[in-house]
Design a protein that fits this description.
single chain; alpha/beta; FAD/NAD(P)-binding domain; D-Amino Acid Oxidase, Chain A, domain 2; 2 domains; 8-stranded mixed sheet; 13 helices; 22% strand
């Protein structure tokens, strides 16, 4: 049984409330295409949709079911930007290049909103903002500097600094201070992904489910094989993120798959009292807690510290202490759903987008893939023949490979998590 199958996607709130079930066949033949896409999450489906709209014959291979990777399991928080903030981008790349990276990234927000509107995707969209709860007083100065950098360098005025009491009016728990972003929100990520798949199919894309890619050959043409068939194509896009195993060393060596765990409570009669703003919430810990309300009044809560890559035996029991620490009034509450997923992180915490000849890839969104994945797919589709400026902007961010390559990723991750957990507590 693969790691991802141990994370209970079938027991997730999202699967239970999906608008529709997918029913795409398994690949059982050798077929030709202009483009073969590996992975039917938001990166792959966005790439397929945008390539098909440009007249290409596109085939998507999905090892499980549409959206059953990170795209349909995540917290649903729509926060524009990168894991490295505006201040970090300017510090590393300077003001001019930092501004270019930030504004290229920020385009993901409008792209997703346009797709939702154009294709009438029902995904519980809420543009109610995002609160980041600041856990330590010593961190407040950093967030003040971040808001100043956004205004002064990026020309963005969407982030405000809140006092502890102002933060509590938006989310009813204690933080030393907080930030509020007016351009963020949240949605049902699986329903968005399923809507994206339908849009791709309507544009002429063929999707095969239960058709895991097991081999990639480049000559004489690109050939991606499954256990029972193959696709021969001019171009390939690898969009399997943390679940893409062995097809391309350039991809595998630069991401670390990290398990993350989410619960959904039963519908709460006092849900609005927990988060009066109905915003998406996260905190300033390195191992982030993040949560929001569902459309039917449940608390969806993810996070907690886990120092080994194997999932906990009881996900609900693992997450519960973090829920009850945040909201003591929920002590003993009923948890209806509990599941996990894999987040792919890079050494730089910036996405890894690039190509090797006619094989392109995008991954490593480091926890901010809800918006970035759709943008990554569009950029790949537009760069099949010639790199676009957006592609070049992201490709130049190429992160270093993890020390020791794949063999040492997990041990190094465990050591890093122990260190940052200790730093959070101190």
């Amino acid at each position: 049984m693969g790691f991802n199958n141990m994370l209970n996607i079938e027991r997730s709130y999202y699967v239970a409330t999906a608008n529709r079930t997918t029913d795409h066949p398994r690949l059982t033949d050798v077929i030709d295409a202009d483009l073969v896409v590996v992975g039917a999450g938001c990166t792959g489906l966005s790439a397929a949709l945008h390539a098909a709209q440009r007249g290409l014959k596109v085939v998507v291979l999905e090892g499980g079911k549409v959206g059953w990777g990170a795209s349909g399991r995540n917290g649903g928080q729509m926060s524009p930007g990168l894991r490295k903030g505006a201040l970090g981008l300017v510090k590393q790349y300077g003001e001019e290049r930092g501004r270019l990276i930030y504004k290229t990234t920020f385009a993901a927000r409008q792209l997703v909103l346009d797709i939702i509107e154009k294709h009438s995707i029902q995904c519980d969209l809420k543009l109610t903002g995002h609160v980041s709860g600041i856990v330590k007083k010593s961190d407040i100065a950093h967030y003040e500097a971040e808001a100043d950098c956004l205004r002064r360098v990026m020309g963005m005025d969407h982030l405000s600094i809140l006092s502890s009491s102002e933060t509590r009016k938006l989310v009813n728990t204690h933080y030393e201070a907080g930030t509020f972003s007016t351009v963020a929100g949240h949605m049902h990520p699986l329903n968005y992904t399923l809507g994206l798949a339908k849009a791709a199919v309507d544009a002429g894309v063929t999707i095969f489910e239960n058709s895991a890619a097991i081999a990639l050959e480049r000559k004489p043409r690109i050939r991606v094989s499954t256990a029972s068939g193959a696709v021969v194509a001019r171009h390939a896009i690898l969009a399997g993120d943390a679940l893409l195993r062995g097809l391309e060393p350039e991809v595998n060596n630069r991401i670390m798959p990290v398990g993350n765990y989410i619960i959904a409570t039963n519908p709460l009669p006092n849900a609005h009292e927990l988060i009066p703003s109905d915003a998406a919430i996260s905190d300033s810990r390195f191992v982030v807690n993040y949560y929001r309300l569902s459309a039917d009044g449940r608390l969806l809560f993810g996070g907690g510290e886990k120092y080994t890559p194997r999932p906990p035996r009881d996900i609900a029991a693992f997450v519960r202490p973090y829920v009850e620490q945040t909201f003591p009034q929920l002590r003993g509450c009923k948890i209806d759903y509990a599941w996990g997923g894999l987040v792919s992180i890079t050494t730089s915490r910036l996405p890894h987008i690039g190509r090797r000849g006619d094989v392109l890839f995008a991954h490593g969104y480091s926890g901010l893939g809800v918006l970035l994945s759709t943008l990554g797919g569009k950029i790949l589709a537009e760069s099949l023949v010639k790199n676009t400026p957006e592609f070049e902007t992201f490709a130049a961010l190429r992160p270093q490979a993890f020390p020791g390559r794949t063999a040492l990723r997990s041990p190094l991750y465990v050591l890093a998590m122990l260190w940052y957990a200790m730093r959070d507590r101190l």
